[in-house]
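Task 17 of the worksheet. Students: predict the tertiary structure of the chain below and write it out as structure tokens. Keep your answer in the requested format; marks are given for formatting as well as content.
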Amino acid sequence: MTFEGRRKGIIAALSSAAFLGVVPIFGKLAISFGFSPLVVVAIRTSIAALLMLLLIAAQMRPFFYIYPVGLAGCLLAGVINGLGSIFYYSGLSRIDAGVGHLLYSFYPLFVAFWLLLDRQSITRLTIFRLILMVPAVFLLILPGKNAVDMPGALMMLSSAVLYALHMLINQRILFEAPAPTVTLYTLLAMAVTVTIGLMVSGQPLPAVALPWWPVLAMALITFFSRLSLFIGIKHLGGLQTAMLGIAELFVTLILAQVWLGEHMATGQWIGAGLLAISLLLVGFDKITPQKRSTTGWLAWLNSPKISPTDFPWSSQP
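Model answer:
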């Protein structure tokens, strides 16, 4: 991996984290204004997918192309992350945004789990950083006076499991397909999934008189965060991007304290501190070059052996 590629990946991953850190704040506001969780996720994902579609149609038409297995992988990742989004916003309606997003921020632990199942290696320092997260989850779900709603907490953790899986599926595809292409088809599949979920649930559409600005802001943020996320994965890989993504929890925590007036117990702050240490150690972790793996249960997502010049994106800067 070149220094420029690593730098670009780190900037993209941190940008995605900053964007994503704001999303739960707007989501909590929208729910408090009267939007149901499924309506929130359906509207913000559909608008983000539409924006990506219009961008590529207007300026990047060659990026519509994707090989069949890559398209299948993007659609699968979109369905998985769409289900994860439903879990996330359903959980957000039950617990505070700060604690909820802290629980969701354990997704790097699940990325490592899926990597091991896919027969890929991780460094010892990465393992140590992941171990730091284990006691943090117990500190965040405090028993007694400050206990967190368990169904809401489980929904957040379920969302983290699915988010981690979709990252690794997309990582395989990003070896050949560019980030805008992967973003487009993943977002489209997400939008269809959450829209079907909304229709099945039978939840009513929001009234026009409700404040719509939080949902519209979420859509714009989602558009930028997804694009930068996949740029980060392309250059750093799924696990390191996920580890840098922990930075989003600091954005959420600060805004939840200042904007939403939320408060955490001392033990919960200690758990947040353990996650912070894990993030800071990224500077000492070795980022191994990303390689195509011919083994593992995700090997079916590998692209056919086609020359890069056969792809229409190769003419793009």
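Marker's comment: Residues 108 and 121 are 14 Å apart (CA to CA). The chain has a mean pLDDT of 77.
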